[in-house]
Structures are given as C-alpha cells and as structure tokens.
Design goal:
This protein is mainly α and about 60 residues long. The protein is about 70% helix and about 0% strand. It is flat.
Length: about 60
C-alpha cells in the first residue's frame, strides 16, 4: 500500500464533526443520520466498483 500526503477525506469529515457540538438531541440525531447516510453511500460506491471490476475480469458473463 502506497502512502500519500493527501489527507484522508473520511478523517477530515470526522475531525470537522468533532469540532461541532450538537445543541440539542434533535441536532445530535441529525448529525448521526448524516454520518449514517455518508457511510451507506460509501458502501454503495464500493459495491459498484467491485461489480465493475468483476465484470471487467469476466466480460463474457
């Protein structure tokens, strides 16, 4: 695995979240939902990459 000087996007988002304190339970729930949505989108994107790579390796399927 190659290391780069580019900061990890997910870690930057986490740091930004930690800098924000939710004022009430509704805001805390909204922040958690945003985090869950980003995670779900990331998993969906990774699934699409895997499907693409699998199709690329077996083009006649």
């Amino acid at each position: 695995m190659e290391h780069s000087n580019i900061p990890d996007k997910n870690l930057i988002n986490t740091v930004k979240e930690l800098e924000q304190d939710p004022v009430n339970s509704h805001q805390a729930q909204q922040m958690q939902q945003d985090k869950n949505d980003r995670r779900k989108e990331m998993i969906k994107d990774l699934d699409e990459v895997v499907k693409f790579k699998n199709n690329d390796q077996h083009p006649h399927r």
